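Hi D.,

Good news: the full-assembly prediction came through. Inputs first.
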Amino acid sequence: MMEALIIGGQPETAALVADLAATLPLSYRPAASQDEGRSAVEFFAGDQPWATRVAESSSDKSWIVVVDPGLDDADAISSLADKVEAGSARIAFSESYAGDPAVELLRGQIAFAVTSCKMHGVTSGSLAGAIFTQVRLARAIGLRSLAAKDVCAVDGGALVTFSARFGEGDVQFGALATISSAAAPRHVVKAYGAGDIASLTLFGSDTARPGEAAIIDATGERQLPTIYETAHRALLRGLREREPLTPQELRDFATDVRLVQSLDLV
Amino acid sequence: MNQRIGVGFVGAGGVVRSIHLPALARMADDFYVGAVWDINPQAAETVVARVGGRVVESFEELLADESVDVLVVCTPARCHADHVARGMRAGKRAILCEKPLAATIEDTQLILEAAAETNVPLIVGAMHRFDPAWTAVLDVVAELRAEATSVRSSIVLPFNARFEQWATEAGPPAAPGSPPEGDMSQYLMRLGVTELAIHDMPLVRSFLPEGQEVTVTSASLLSPFGYNISVSAGDRVVDLFGYMNANWAPCWELEAISPSTALHVEFPPSFVRAGSGVSTVTRQSSSQVFGPAQKNGYEKEWEAMRDLARGKGAAIPSVEDVIADFRFALTIAEQSCALLAKGGA
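Then the structure:
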């Protein structure tokens, strides 16, 4: 029988760790007072300056899990990539939206050339954070080389148009975010091809509602299986078999951060 | 018992056959087709063979026909203003003009003057404005007009042919016209805005403060057909997306969100009889749903025509309002074309 790994981390992540460990009791247990220095997994909150905190704390012994890494100093993230390259940190990002298991499931089913992509989301946080979430989602479904073409922003709403690539083709990508308390936070993704649509609705980790994914073509619509698991649980459950983030993945993250910071959204 | 109302059609193309005739067939106690004129007499004869009435040889003859109480203008947009204005001056009881209202802003002056002279009511065939799902939430729309932050119109549809076939046996499609002169991308953009986005332009404008200037900040075309337009309107952002491709699933959405309220409306596709749209108003994570109702916007449009023709009055937008709707759409089309000419955004 495998030994349960000890999860430690910042006080801000304690509730999440307790919640996750409770549903993975054979694999993990939260660190107790006598476990100091023995954690195999360290959870870090992803609010700024998470990159600096992680760089200061990382060690070869533990996994570092950053929960919802947000906008931060891009140079600090690049430095972290250098540190990973030097082989001194094993880092994983647990992103509520881009890491939702429905995203990976959908991505594996996108067998058509995406030519345009639209996202819209409601947030209780910042516009920059919401657009960043959508940029990360774009990367997660396979869009590359994002470049901002237009920013249309007002107090409480932003509509950003990007150019991007998917495979060998160009993609127009539009990202709309609105700050509102009307509905629970969510992001909706639609990726369009000449005869196909990939559809994804994600509710994040604030509710227990699972993501909804579907592929639509000329013959019908196929709803992908519902996965009743948050991004955080899915990541932790697979952590033992998972590869840590590569330096390139961290640099890609820094690129996404720089892109969104360049939009000057509040 | 009320006397039936005679309808005169100017133009007898696909929209008449697929949309208006089926709607009128459900209101046979109220309407009959009196006369039809089309520049192509065969098209007019096809309509008359289906529903009765007579083919007339000129627009003047249609206007003079005493069986024509109300006029329906289904000609190309460049003819709309002239036909509407002359219909008003001929003393018709009400006019229904297919969208767009005109081809240019200058054209609308004709309509404005004729309306002022005659007081004949005018309905523009923006059916979603009459959809029960929309009219059920007008109080929320008014609230969002003051407070909305973002407005999103997304019209994703398969190509029209299958919907037309579901709506009616329309016969063989019209021969394709000659390719337009000038810049094809600008032609397609204008087509996208004035033929597809136009359906919801009055609704989108309802979420903006009266007289709000708009600026298109980004506009691009989509292949095989579509548009992607960003609009800045004071303290609002407006996302206009329309796309037609070979997928099966129509998804016609309109959404406006304020800091405290979200309104989402989903409409059925054009042509088919599928009831009304469905509106969902969400506040504090609780939703109230309106619709679907059995009647769609087309039928409600015709009910308004009936009431107007019988002098009962109906809740319709003023002529100034429908002209402002048209100006709004045209402004977005022209600014989008101008951006495309500069290389898009």
